Amino acid sequence: xxxxxxxxxxxxxxxxxxxxxxxxxxxxxxxxxxxxxxxxxxxxxxxxxxxxxxxxxxxxxxxxxxxxxxxxxxxxxxxxxxxxxxxxxxxxxxxxxxxxxxxxxxxxxxxxxxxxxxxxxxxxxxxxxxxxxxxxxxxxxxxxxxxxxxxxxxxxxxxxxxxxxxxxxxxxxxxxxxxxxxxxxxxxxxxxxxxxxxxxxxxxxxxxxxxxxxxxxxxxxxxxxxxxxxxxxxxxxxxxxxxxxxxxxxxxxxxxxxxxxxxxxxxxxxxxxxxxxxxxxxxxxxxxxxxxxxxxxxxxxxxxxxxxxxxxxxxxxxxxxxxxxxxxxxxxxxxxxxxxxxxxxxxxxxxxxxxxxxxxxxxxxxxxxxxxxxxxxxxxxxxxxxxxxxxxxxxxxxxxxxxxxxxxxxxxxxxxxxxxxxxxxxxxxxxx
Length: 432
Prior knowledge:
7 helices; Type 1 dockerin domain; five-stranded parallel beta sheet; 22% strand
């Protein structure tokens, strides 16, 4: 009898100890609760520091967001992932006392429910490649404490309409916003010196203000931006890559700053509404099909610096390839004026093609209002100056077209004739 009671007691003790150990083990595996007041619409919530089932490492922990959790690797100090149900994320400076230094590759990729991200952290290593690719984000403000924007970071974000890029970003990665087919407004970018290839390809941007410090626009950056109608190129720009503005069918005018030394192949191919082109005084050559299918251009200003225009044939893969930067027949070019100087390489080249020519030097001389054209408006200004109905000392001196020391009706006539492209130069007009 005593043996049975003793045995029963021992069994009960074993069961009790077993239950205790299981509870104790659970306690060991769960970190202390942490109160976080920066998430879930500002409400205070009790947050357990728990490992994600989809953790990428042993140091990957969940952090609350609206609709679910994001995941943070405390070892490498970066955001690693996101629950697909998450709709809004606030990225703080620290998670569980560990600073957040970057948003990792693919962290929010394919998070279609994600609409808003607020970045409060000091992301010294930036936003990595594919971080928000194909997500549902609608707008993003990238603050000053973010320094890098990786390749395809926001590619194919179908709902993205507005982007602010802070002065902290110095380089925009390859295809960063490629395929964002609702992206209309891109602002900021004050510190950007380099825009990666295909960064804004296909975006419906209408106008963009490029920063003064920008030195390079790489291949295809704005290709297919068919609504882009206004772009002023910055004064320090050196390189425009292949097809950089190809098929920007709303562009009407382009003027390259004199700092530009490289203009890539097909840079403006397919800009069907382009009307006026002014090339850089530092540009040495025109590449293959630079202005192909630019059917509405009325004038090209080609400086003396141009020493090679792609008119030669070359061999590629056993085939002869024509490297003409324009694709006009003589008949098509009859409505286009090439402004060149008579002693320039461009003059001899264009004359050999039978293209219509006017003097580049006289263009600058006759363009009194400095709008890039010599027109009847300029002739009227000279006429008004000659009669005294308009007084402007600076313009009066410039209006002496034939350099005889005075501004007369003869000067106005010369401007009018030049505006109508009567002959090549003012001097020849006067002789006639």
